[in-house]
Amino acid sequence: MREYSDFTIRPINRLMRWVLAGLAASCAAVFYCAVGANIVGNAQRHDFLNLYTGATLARAGDFAHLHDPARQFEIERALVPDLPALVPFVRPPLYAGAIAWLASMPLARAFWVWVALQVVILMMCWAWAAQRFGPSGLIWSALFLPTAYGIANGQDCAEMLALMIIAFELAEREWMVVSGFAIGLALFKFHLLLLFPVMMIVSRRWRMFAGYCSAAALMGMGSLLLSGRQGMLDYAKLLERKDIERLSPSPEMMSNIHAIAANLGIESRGVSIVLAAMVVAIALIAAWEAPLWRWFAAAIAGSLLMVPHVYGYDASVLLLPALLAIFGPQTKMMRIAAIAVVLPCVFWLPAAGRPWAMGPGVAIFVFLIGVAWERFQEAQGNAHSLKPVPLANERDCVAPASAGELPGA
Questions:
Q1: How far lies 366's CA from each of 44, 165, 199, 277, in Å?
Q2: Which residues contact 323 (CB under 8 A, 6 or more apart)?
Q3: pLDDT tens, 152-184?
């Protein structure tokens, strides 16, 4: 009877866990769809509109004016006549060429095709989490808000998450050059990767750095060939402009360290520099001689925290290190910090206004501190393992006499 129970009940329990996880993920997906229904109308006129504008210019071969604000606004007003202000396209020219196919469809249809593509990519990320971490990995992935929120806004955050997962999996297999190349492919949002090359150099991951530089060179040279020298200069000037509202969002609504200062009323250039330096220092400590999961966690969290322009959906890449921390052999503090950044309520806090809007930034900062704390715990554990064990008594120091040998002979 015991053998029968072991053979039948355990597989059934395993199946039930997967069924419950699937139901939980489905409920989360339905909920996000319901919430996203109130967002998609605005998304077509804002976040996705800039991507469609870039695709339109790329499809027409007009890369020379790809980052000309006047030309962009002209196209956007033709698509949305009552658009009050420019929603600038800020991706590199090579990325615009990659999505030029979107402009072969009307705006509304292109939006839904784009959303469907991002959903498919997200489902693949969920499948990876389920395969690696089991039913619980699927549930935590489904609870994570930033990616679903970004997709509803017509963003490309699912692509960023997928590239980070691919890079991590390749690095685990010690395909470091290809892993670095995968990270470099995410440079279409280069501001979210600022710490990665620094971390590669400090940790002496030279093969990964070579792959990263190869991808960066490919994107840079490809963009230069498409738009020319002047087009690249226009791109740099566009990114530096402070008079475009969509390029200068409210700092208190961001998901970074600067949002904490803004919500506490201590925002200034000096404070921002000090906070950014603090984040870099903590990230470097966390990544020093680190295992792969901790290296990725420090690079991702540190990059998100230090740059000034980070929306909630940009934190999509944080799902990878959060899952690795939740299911890895980490300390209780680390798991709690990881769970905090996965819970959807954290990224809803900006809707409550000041000072609650700093919630995502605080959660990510605590997560980064937790990653650094893991290093100290690991160092302490190594010190304990190397500490000599005291002997019970003096006789333990004396080798036993061999047969026929007299003590003192």
A1: 35, 22, 20, 16
A2: 129, 132, 133, 137, 140, 141, 338, 342
A3: 999 999 999 999 999 999 999 999 999 999 999
The three-state DSSP-derived secondary structure of 273-285 is HHHHHHHHHHHHH
Q: How many CB atoms lie within 10 A of CB 168?
A: 22
Radius of gyration of the CA atoms of the chain, in A? 26
Greater model confidence, 177 or 407 = 177
CA distance 318 to 83: 33
Helices (runs of H) and strands (runs of E) counted in the chain: 19, 0
Which pLDDT belongs to residue 32? 83
Please, what is the angle between helix 135-143 and helix 107-133, to 10°? 140
Measured N-to-C along each axis, helices 257-264 and 269-287 cross at an angle, to the nearest 10 degrees, of: 140
Q: What is the rounded CA–CA span in Å between residue 179 and residue 194?
A: 17
How many residues comprise the chain?
Answer: 409
Q: What's the pLDDT tens digit per position in 329-366? A: 777 888 899 999 999 889 989 888 889 999 999 999 99
User: Other C-beta atoms within 10 Å of 70: how many?
Assistant: 8
Q: Which contacts (CB < 8 Å, 24+ apart) does range 112-119 have?
A: 114/48, 114/51, 114/154, 115/40, 115/151, 115/152, 115/154, 118/150, 118/151, 118/155, 118/156, 118/157, 118/158, 118/159, 119/151, 119/158
CA atoms of 8 and 259, how far apart (whole Å): 53
* Tokens at 136, concatenated: 């619980």
